[in-house]
Amino acid sequence: MRPSAVRLLNILVPVKRTVDYAVKIRVNPDQKGVDLNVKHSMNPFDEIAVEEAVRLRERLKDEVKSIKVVTIGPTKAAETLRTALAMGADSGIHVEVPDSAPPPEPLGIAKALRAVIQREKEGVDLVILGKQAIDDDASQTGQMLAGLLDWAQATFASKVDVDPKAKTANVTREIDGGLEELKCQLPLVVTTDLRLNEPRYASLPNIMKAKKKPIEKLTPADLKIDLTPLLETVKVTEPPKRKGGGKVESVDELIAKLKEAGITPVKS
């Protein structure tokens, strides 16, 4: 029997539905965003987060009580939750926003996640989410969430070890020029880097089982939050196409071409 004083871990994994990484992005006709009428899938960094939560349960066995996934998005975002459930999560929460609504900003998402955490009766000990979403590349939500909750945070994690008894976690994070090791107190927010793990493929039996796992539906009003963006996108354009290069026969010709282009060569 496990001592009653030892609290089992409850893990929350936020996931986001994004344009699939293999899709070539195109600006939409009104130049206010990109064409979203394309294939979508789970944000790759969030896949890593779900995988890490499942691996923690495999390593810690009966010391992880639940893995819950949450998404904030339109109706079709429920498909992303089902993918996470098929990977091994236990249940999901879908904070549904209208399909016509503009995408929420990181601060709005962080506030929504804080509200979700605060309403969890059994509490949340560990939040694992991707370091960034590949659609906006903001890399802000995890940090903002930790700030709003006044929790410890460990970003860009490439290794995570949790000790439920001591209520601590050792996190190795990637920084410029090397690795940094942090010892953090739970509750904790962790954002995942690319090298943390290799997400598994959901098997057909697990995909079928995921259809029966519970998903709670909420609205921003239920959480008493406003997801209206604070920023306005004025215009989105594609980068200018690169011009073709040319060949030169000698260094002197190269220097002449540079001078014609208004570039002054620097003498070494």
Automatic annotation (TrEMBL):
Record localization: Mitochondrion matrix
GO cellular component: a single term: mitochondrial matrix
Keywords of the record: Electron transport, Mitochondrion, Transport
Gene Ontology MF annotations: electron transfer activity
Cofactor: FAD; AMP
Cross-referenced SUPFAM superfamilies: Adenine nucleotide alpha hydrolases-like (SSF52402)
Record-linked SMART domains: ETF
Transport listed as a keyword: yes
Highest taxon, organism lineage: Eukaryota
The record's free-text note on cofactor binding: Binds 1 FAD per dimer. Binds 1 AMP per subunit.
Limits of the Electron transfer flavoprotein alpha/beta-subunit N-terminal domain: 32-227
Coiled-coil stretches: none
Biological process per Gene Ontology, one example term: amino acid catabolic process
Subunit structure: Heterodimer of an alpha and a beta subunit.
Family: Belongs to the ETF beta-subunit/FixA family.
PANTHER family in the cross-refs: ELECTRON TRANSFER FLAVOPROTEIN BETA-SUBUNIT (PTHR21294), ELECTRON TRANSFER FLAVOPROTEIN SUBUNIT BETA (PTHR21294:SF8)
Function comment: The electron transfer flavoprotein serves as a specific electron acceptor for several dehydrogenases, including five acyl-CoA dehydrogenases, glutaryl-CoA and sarcosine dehydrogenase. It transfers the electrons to the main mitochondrial respiratory chain via ETF-ubiquinone oxidoreductase (ETF dehydrogenase).
Protein name: Probable electron transfer flavoprotein subunit beta
Lineage: Eukaryota, Fungi, Dikarya, Basidiomycota, Agaricomycotina
